[in-house]
Design brief:
- There is one protein chain.
- Helix content is 27%, strand content 26%.
- The chain is α+β, with helices and mostly antiparallel strands.
- It is globular, with a radius of gyration of 20 Å.
Length: 330
């Protein structure tokens, strides 16, 4: 049986809700309604792997799932715009920043535990803020195989589920047993993964639902064997992927095609706009070569899209999420 009470039995942070949800600035309304810590105008470049991005109107870092479940209803009642980020490994945030509450789910929500057994498989529950490298290492030490494909993916559990992250022919949906989610009413639910719709780099879900944890189906196996597979994947990544700051694969692979090969065939390796550059090592990586701005990456992305489309008729679709660029950047 899957039990989520470890996430909801804590005392929920008290929140005083203002009677008027539509008046006052975002900062005033949040300060009046939320008693937890808030970072005002926090620069998002510190929370993205591209190291670019302007300030968020407010940054809130829940210390637990219970605190997240207390926060979301406050934001809803106040009518405050919000979004969730994890380790920022798949984001391009505009230089102007985001005029909203950004919820950063990080190391404070990173617990891992065994959560039962189904037949020969073991269930492992990891909170959304847990990094994938940490989870893979923990599972390796415990002799639980299945997540080796995630070795070297720099994201968090929550982000990896929301993006259905994958590598080496495997995706999160292949090992996901269930999701623990929080909605805007503060409700905490366990959703069987089989009831959810996953697609290429996407999880289809209702608005206002946040992944609080993932529950994975893993197989008992020798730690040495699991570790060997992880080391093989990590070595392959080091050989093929750049070390400079990046957001991982920038573009989605078109059906039957590899975005990196299309970009390379268009002669775009090394192309640079400001401090943003197409990696010479792997053309589907746009890297921060030093001093890049979000606008540099955005303009470089457009040049790559236009030149690949002109050469092949294929318009590459970003895999990274573009935040704060308006309709043109969606």
């Amino acid at each position: 049986m899957l039990i989520a009470d470890c996430f909801i039995k804590e005392d929920v942070l008290s929140a005083t809700v203002a009677t008027s949800s539509g008046s006052g600035s975002l900062q005033d309304r949040l300060a009046a309604a939320w008693q937890g810590p808030v970072e005002w105008d926090g620069r998002l470049a510190r929370y993205t792997t591209l190291r670019v991005g302007g300030p968020a109107a407010a940054l809130v870092k829940p210390a637990s799932v219970a605190e997240l479940a207390a926060l979301l209803p406050v934001l809803r009642r106040q009518g405050l715009p919000w979004r969730v980020i994890g380790r920022g490994s798949n984001l391009l945030v505009a230089d102007a920043g985001l005029p909203e509450v950004v919820i950063v789910i990080g190391p404070a929500m990173a617990a891992i535990r065994q959560a039962g057994q189904e037949g020969s498989e073991r269930l492992v529950q990891a909170e959304a803020g847990c990094s994938l490298p940490k989870l893979v290492s923990w599972c390796t030490a415990e002799g639980l195989g299945g997540l080796e494909f995630a070795a070297g993916i720099p994201g968090s559990v929550g982000g990896a589920i929301a993006m259905n992250a994958g590598a080496w022919g495997r995706e999160m949906r292949d090992v996901l047993h269930a999701l623990v989610v929080v909605d805007e009413t503060g409700g905490v639910q366990i959703l069987p993964a089989a009831s959810q719709v996953f697609a290429y780099r996407r999880w289809e879900h209702a608005p206002g639902v946040v992944v609080a944890a993932g529950i994975f189906r893993l197989q008992p196996e020798s730690p040495e064997v699991i570790g060997g597979r992880c080391r093989g994947h990590l070595q392959a990544r080091r050989e093929k992927q750049p070390l400079e700051p990046s957001a991982g694969s920038f573009f989605k692979n078109p059906p039957g095609q590899a975005a990196g090969r299309l970009i390379e065939a268009a002669g775009l390796k090394g192309l640079r706009v400001g401090g943003a550059r197409v990696s010479e090592q792997h053309a589907n990586f746009l890297v921060n070569a030093g001093g890049a701005t979000a606008r540099d990456f955005y303009e470089l992305m457009k040049v790559v899209q236009e030149q690949v489309a002109e050469r092949t008729g294929i318009r590459l679709e970003p895999e990274v999420h573009l935040l704060g660029f308006g309709e043109a950047g969606r």
